[in-house]
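Below is how a single chain appears once it has passed through the pipeline. First comes the sequence as given, then the structure the pipeline wrote out for it. We keep one example in the README because the format questions we get most often are answered faster by looking than by reading.
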Amino acid sequence: MTSHIETLVQQLDGKADESYDARAELIWIGADAIPAVIDGLPSLGGFGQLTAIEVFEEVGDPRCGPALIGLLDSDNPTVREWAATTLASLKIDGAVEPVRHAYRACLERETPPGWSEPEGIRWALTELGARTPSSHHSPRACEPPLQRTPPAGPRPTSPRSSTTWPTTPR
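Resulting structure:
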């Protein structure tokens, strides 16, 4: 028999409204849902895995660390990026070397440095204390820095936040 939580996990891969509702309920359930989400990851497609990563990040339970590390080897570049950034935002112990390996894999795939995946992974390494920010790889490295004006409300905690900050030249 399938438990209610296991049903919710499978719904993470469903249509947008069904997935959103399942995600919200799993987050509400909290830490008690994490083992079922971890167990259900292999049966989920890319969309479901991304939604599961959002559950992990919102619940903040470190037991998801090994599952997130496993997702760094996904065939989906967005899953790899979100796994790396969530490992960093949750400050998961032991994540530095797997995230470094994921970054090296990006380089081996010759993913352009300005694309989302390598940028997210570099952010994760910085957050984990494994690198210092550098602008020498940026195509805008020779331009003057931009002054960022954050919007009202809480500051985004990861680079994949839906909030876009307006920028104005100094």
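The longest strand covers residues 146-148.

See the next section for the split statistics.
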